[in-house]
Design goal:
The protein is α/β, with parallel strands linked by helices and 322 residues long. The protein has two domains: 178 residues, Rossmann fold (3-Layer(aba) Sandwich), CATH 3.40.50; 121 residues, TPP-binding domain (Rossmann fold, 3-Layer(aba) Sandwich). It contains seven helices and 17 strands. The strands form four sheets. The chain has a seven-stranded parallel sheet with strand order 7-11-6-1-4-5-12, with helices on both faces.
Length: 322
């Protein structure tokens, strides 16, 4: 009765979310006296999972699954859960898993709790803590079904090494044409940059930058910090930055360790989408900007003066550390 996780990967490498999921699963498995099984899809070397407590990997290699198709992937996870007699199935809160989770729940007739933060509050009855109302509150959700599916919020638990002895097994689930009613026509990828989904730090900017020609200092600051770049909705709507960088409730949700907002006033939709980030730093020339109300640290001033100074300070600090 192993706990099952779906370990997401991209280009043959596990996503950060997969390692956090493995760490989370291991802790629950230890408390319940069971093991952790991961199912992977078209991933090469899976040995890294052993560092984070995974005991067994079901390796699925199928050319039909090269492009993400929610129904087909959900079917794979369902069959893996049935094979392992798993009563707890864990998914990340990535874009793919947000589509996967409800389909998998229906297939397994399972109760489903999204946006879970922290380990289960109780296992009998089974209760978990979740964020609610766009991260403005928490609730305790009780799941009474035999099979339980949880989506774990990004950066809500952390990554912890807990080495195990790993067993690998080739797994060939039955996949039919009905699983491919939706086909992937094309995939747009950003290369050479830290992705928003995997970033520990995000540097985001808004209309306070005055134009796309001024984004060089945002990219330089992100480069020094090893961060991803992002933007507010008006910026992407104006075409200053790609829509893939739009973060917020109507864009990509962000749950990073550090979120730096530069020249963003803080519309409620933007704040709702980044509110689960652990530390929020705001730089804005308007002391009445709404963002300051939710910021952990705020700097009132001209971004064109402050950001270059930050870059210089961070560069000096890194040189001293090397």
């Amino acid at each position: 009765m192993s706990i099952l996780i779906y370990a997401e990967s991209a280009e043959g490498k596990f996503k950060k979310a997969a390692l956090e999921l493995a760490s989370y699963a291991k802790k629950i498995a230890e408390s319940l006296g069971t093991t952790v099984t991961a199912v992977t899809i078209n991933t090469g070397d899976v040995s890294e999972l052993s560092k984070y407590g995974v005991d067994k990997v079901l390796k699925v290699n199928n050319d039909k699954l090269t492009g993400f198709t929610a129904k087909a992937y959900a079917d794979v996870i369902k069959q893996a859960a049935q094979k392992e007699a798993s009563k707890i199935v864990l998914l990340s809160s990535t874009t793919d898993s947000i589509y996967l989770a409800p389909l998998t729940a229906v297939a397994l007739e399972a109760g489903y709790a999204s946006n879970v933060v922290g380990l289960p509050v109780n296992t009998s009855p089974f209760q978990v803590k979740r964020t609610a109302f766009s991260n403005k509150a928490f609730n305790i959700t009780e799941i009474n079904t035999d099979v339980k599916i949880l989506s774990i919020g990004k950066n809500s638990y952390g990554i912890f090494e807990n080495a195990s002895s790993l067993t690998e097994e080739d797994f060939n689930p039955a996949i039919g044409d009905a699983d491919f009613g939706v086909k992937v026509a094309s995939v747009e990828k950003v290369s050479g940059k830290v992705s928003i989904a995997d970033a520990d730090i995000v540097v985001s900017a808004g209309r306070g930058l005055k134009g796309p020609e001024n984004w060089g200092m945002i990219e330089e600051l992100a480069g020094v910090l090893g961060a991803a770049t992002a933007c507010s909705k008006p910026v992407s709507d104006l075409g200053w930055r790609p829509h893939g960088e739009h973060v917020g409730q109507t864009g990509k949700p962000v749950s990073t360790n550090l979120y730096i907002a530069i020249g963003i006033s803080g519309a409620i939709q933007h704040i709702a989408g980044i509110n689960s980030s652990k530390v929020k730093v705001v730089i804005n020339s308007d002391p009445e900007a709404p963002f300051f109300k939710v910021a952990d640290y705020g700097v009132v001033g001209d971004a064109f003066e402050i950001v270059p100074q930050l870059i210089a300070k961070f560069k000096t600090f890194k040189e001293q550390q090397s």
